[in-house]
Structures are given as structure tokens and as C-alpha cells.
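Researcher: Checking consistency across runs. Here is Succinyl-CoA--3-ketoacid-CoA transferase again:
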Amino acid sequence: MKKVYPDATAALAGLLKDDMTIMAGGFGLCGIPETLIDAIKLSGAKGLTVISNNAGVDGIGLGVLLETRQIRKMISSYVGENKTFAQQYLAGELELEFNPQGTLAERIRAGGAGIPAFFTKTGVGTLIAEGKEVREFDGERYVMERGLFADLAIVHAHTGDTEGNLVYRKTARNFNPMMATAAEVTVAEVEHLVQAGEIDADHIHTPGIFVQRIIHVADAKKHIEQRTTRPRAA
């Protein structure tokens, strides 16, 4: 099956629609599928539910979809760096489902593994547990969380081959591998595209069976979310 597409718009053709659910990899601005996000913006798809650890920052990453008001709901862990997000949420224009970060990661992993729900101690006795089933195991209380599965997952990888096998680099690995398994269709943007068989099988993080479409983004931007410096010595 031909998996390599010439650009992001072509790779997303026929996949985008209003009111769909999209998983977007990344942590802060590290490992975000920025080229695919920009193509979603250009598509005009609206009413989106987006599952992502955070919402980028103003003007970068998912922040561009917030500016165009294409996102209806975020399922996230941390959104503190995005003023547009805060403004829309506080004005009642954006729905938010907050998750402890580990719970969000496990909900995505569970969805990819076909597990509809699981129990965790995290959040018991807090607002997180309101409206959810709480059950006791071995004398401890646990809250039930549902697995997450999306219509589309968009991920960013350092290296990919023409069969869709992916390798992530360092911190950019974050949420990308689990999201790649937890959607009907996964589209990956890769910085280095090689031929099938060129990646050592022991180095593959996401097997190609989970990836349906790929684009090559050789000049991927590497944004710095928080730049901290000290004065240069005289």
C-alpha cells in the first residue's frame, strides 16, 4: 500500500470532517505535528474535539486552531501556556476535559490496546472523580477512567520508512507512540524518510501497521517554548 504522500493536504484528504475527534502528539512544543496541524487549519474543519497533552502556545501548534475557533473541546492535561485557550475557556466558548497527566497517557494507551476502561487511584476524592464510578479494591478506592480512541491521530517522528515504521527522538517521543495506536487512521510527519528495511527492527518505536499515511517534513521547525539564559561572562 502506498503510504507516502507529497504534502500534508494530500495526506489528510478525505479524512477531515466537522465534529471529528483528533489526537495530536507532542509535549509543549516538542514533537508536535505542526505541518499537519497547519493543514487542518487550511481545511476549515470545525467543531473538533482534540486530545493532546496541551494546546500549544499562542500562534504555534494547536494554538493556531484555537485562534480560528476550529476546536470545540480539548481533552488535555496542561494548557497554562496558551492565553487564547484561557480566554475562550473562561468565556464559555471552549469545552475542557482535564486529566491528570498520567491518567491521560493511560487513557490513550488503553484505547490503543482495546481496553474500554480501567481503575486508578489518581483523582479519587477530587473534582476529577465527580460523576465517575468509584470502586474499592483491597481496601483502597479507585476511580474508573475510560479509554480514548480517535477518528484521526497526527504524530511527528524523527525517522520513518516507506512502510510507516517510525522512530522518535528523545523527548519528542512523549505522547506520539501511544497516540499512533489509538485512532482509526494515523498520519505521521517525519523529518527523515528512508526506504523500507533501512531502520533496524530493534530501533522501531511504532510499527508500520499502525500508520496509514506519511509525509516528509525535512525542515521541521524546532520551537523553544521557554528560553532561559544567563549573562555571558565578561
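Researcher: Does this match what you'd expect to see?
Model: One thing to look at in this run: The radius of gyration is 18 Å.
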